[in-house]
C-alpha cells in the first residue's frame, strides 16, 4: 500500500511540475515566439520526466521505502 501511495505522490508531483514549467516557459516566451507552447510543452515534459526519474531513484535508494 505504501508503494502505491509513493507512486501516486510521484505522479501528482510530476504533473504539477509539468503544468507549472509549461505555463512558465510559455509565458516567458510569449512576446518573443508566437507559438510559445511548442517550446513550453516539451520543456514541461522533460522536467516532469527528470523529476520522476530522480524521485524514483531517491525512493529506491532510501533505507525506509
Helix content: over 70%
Whole-Å distance between the termini? 11 Å
The parts where pLDDT drops under 50 for at least 5 residues are none
Approximate shape:
elongated
What series of H and E elements makes up the topology? HH
Structural class, from secondary structure content? mainly alpha
Q: Report the C-alpha radius of gyration, rounded.
A: 15 Å
Taken as a percent bin, the fraction of beta residues is under 5%
The number of helical elements comes to 2
Number of strands: 0
Q: In this structure, how is the largest beta sheet organized? A: none
Mean pLDDT: 90
How many domains would you count in the coordinates? 1
What's this model, at a glance?
Helices cover 82% and strands 0% of the residues. The protein is mainly α and 65 residues long.
Explained architecture:
This protein is mainly α and 65 residues long. Helices cover 82% and strands 0% of the residues. The chain contains 2 helices and no strands. The longest helix has 28 residues, at 2-29. It is elongated, with a radius of gyration of 15 Å. It has helices spanning 2-29, 37-61. It has one domain (2-61).
Amino acid at each position: 500500500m505504501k508503494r502505491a501511495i509513493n507512486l501516486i505522490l510521484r505522479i501528482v508531483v510530476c504533473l504539477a511540475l509539468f503544468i507549472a514549467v509549461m505555463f512558465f516557459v510559455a509565458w516567458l516566451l510569449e512576446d518573443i515566439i508566437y507559438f510559445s507552447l511548442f517550446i513550453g510543452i516539451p520543456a514541461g515534459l522533460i522536467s516532469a520526466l527528470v523529476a520522476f526519474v530522480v524521485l524514483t531513484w531517491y525512493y529506491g535508494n532510501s533505507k525506509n521505502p
